[in-house]
Amino acid sequence: MKPPLFRYQAPKTLKEAVIALASDPDAMVLAGGQSLLPALNFRLASPSLLVDIQHIDELKGISIAHGQIIVKAMTRHRELELDERVRQANPLIAETMAHVAHIPIRNRGTVVGSLCHADGAAEVPLVLILLGGSVVVEGPSGRREIEADKFFRFHLSTARRRDEIAVEARFPVLPAGSGWAFDELTRRHGDYAIAGVGAVVRLDAGGHANDIRLAACGVASRPIRLLEAEKLLSGTALGEAELKAAGKAAADLVSAPDDMHATNAYRRRVVAALVRRMVAKAAARARTRQ
Ligand SMILES: Cc1cc2nc3c(=O)[nH]c(=O)nc-3n(C[C@H](O)[C@H](O)[C@H](O)COP(=O)(O)OP(=O)(O)OC[C@H]3O[C@@H](n4cnc5c(N)ncnc54)[C@H](O)[C@@H]3O)c2cc1C
């Protein structure tokens, strides 16, 4: 199908883009277009105006400062995946980005666009939740920073107001001595996750988990922290019994209904297995970094 008719503006500055977006209640931001253009073609979205932000130089680039990896709005998935400074500062990010769609889509799609699109099965929102990052938005009433756990509201819904542009995402660097892991189950390589789990683990000198964070995608209407599983593992030596109990606790947080890809019961089993494997893998990496 062809997209519905829309007007198009391609501002050169953020200020112009904010004015354009605020000028029409049915306007939408166009970034990499990898989710929005299919939505237009399927007539799932019909904005009267598209504000294309890809020519705005101040929205391009990646920097690292004060323990944060700052990813500006027009940074493509592939740029973040391949950035050597990011790989050093937080290897979880590159490992996870490799699971986002296929390379041609990662060449066009943006990291911040994925956060704004907020698909409950997407990998980048999981990373932001897992690391405790944030999204900075700017609109007619100014700039504000929204913490990851407040940003994602529901499938395809965020705390960004309609007249705000997300200008950057902030991902914390990996805490010193931490191990990391991410994996997902998909029907085909490059598909959205049936379920995915990420883990960050830090161990004390005795090998007990003194800092552990877990998150999942594909299992609820938004990416979620697996807080019950974290509690069960915290302070333990991450033995078989604890991993099994944590897997079960994580499975109990799966709320996705049966769909054409998987039943709820299947997703529960996948999440339980991924939690056990990701925690073990992250802990093994943490041991080599102590
Ligand atoms: C075949 C295929 C497979 C895919 N597989 C996966 C996958 O496995 N995992 C995955 O995570 N993604 C997947 N995607 C989606 C891809 O990652 C998109 O690039 C991403 O979701 C959106 O980024 P974008 O820059 O293309 O955003 P766009 O498509 O331009 O925009 C998406 C939405 O976000 C809004 N938006 C974008 N940027 C901003 C901003 N700066 N401020 C405010 N609003 C903004 C737009 O208005 C729109 O509502 C797939 C896409 C395709 C086509």
Strand runs, count: 14
- Tell me the radius of gyration: 19 Å
Mean pLDDT: 97
Number of domains: 3
What tags apply to this protein structure?
Uridine Diphospho-n-acetylenolpyruvylglucosamine Reductase, domain 3, Enolase-like, domain 1, single chain, alpha+beta, 290 residues, binds flavin-adenine dinucleotide
Question: Can you describe what's shown?
Answer:
- With 290 residues, the protein is of the alpha+beta class.
- The chain has 12 helices and 14 strands.
- The strands form 4 sheets. It has a 5-stranded antiparallel beta sheet with strand order 4-5-10-6-7. The protein has a 4-stranded antiparallel beta sheet with strand order 11-12-13-14. A 3-stranded parallel beta sheet has the order 1-3-2, covered by helices on one side.
- Strand 4 and strand 5 form a beta hairpin.
- The longest helix is centred in the C-terminal third of the chain and has 26 residues, at 264-289.
- The chain is globular and about 60 Å long.
- The termini are far apart.
- Bound molecules: flavin-adenine dinucleotide.
- Flavin-adenine dinucleotide is lined by residues 28-36, 38, 53, 73, 100-101, 105, 109-110, 112-114, 116-117, 122-124, 160, 165-166, 190-192.
